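Re: the 284-residue chain
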Amino acid sequence: MKKSYMDRFVGKYCKIVTKEPGDTRASVVTGILEEIDYEDGFILIDSKQGLGALRINTIIAIKPAKKRTIENEQHAVIGIGTLIVFIAMVLVAAVAASVIIQTSESLQNRAYAVGKQTIREVSSGVSIIDQMGYTNEGKTIVEYLAISVRPRAGSYDLDLNETLIYLQYDNLTVLSLNYWNGSDAVTSTISEAGVFHTLNHACIGATSFGVIGIRDSDNSIENTYGLGTGDMCMILINLTAAFPDTGGLEPGEELYGRLVPEIGAAGIFLCNAPNAFDHRVVEL
């Protein structure tokens, strides 16, 4: 190769084809041709392996080449794959975080609702003050029962319309408020004849009870059947209609009952009839 030809490649990035004597195959070296030493017969080339020398008499061809900005294309492929995996991990983490946040919010709302209902269930309820009975003219059997009740301390307002009374004597009887007859079954005014003559007895039968508001400043008992804080009422039960087999509560007998509101603790009462009735109104 002529001297003038090789000088044109000095300082350029070239592809150099060489073949050593005795080799059957040629080899290729790429790099920047730094210097040519014609006296010693070597060229200096700066390749990716470093600075090296090649004998001029082994050079078959020299060709300018484009220098690669990425030395190993495989590294770029690995980098793109790593980036894809990283993005996928970020997306999965974002979805998982969203699911966890939604689940925690749902559990928090559910726990709040359950806690509120539990507090209302525990704190609400009715308290039994006393119970009185009213006998027939012959003073042989208790025909009517009057139970004085009020809300428990700290209780929410109670709906008497949703309150049930369970009576256990010779059988089990369930009573509900007879509100269809309006003031005939619910009233806040006691007549001159007394508590047991205030309500229309036809309104309190075998499956219903009546209510008299004893302390009801806002008239909530009579108007909306609501028993609020500070209120007190008297519930009247027709034992003759509830227990037709015996006609009422006989002397010396015991009556068990529960006053069950819609929400809250039930009020439990136990009526023990005396062995003899001295007056028509007796304490049970």
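The CA atoms of residues 141 and 250 lie 5 Å apart.
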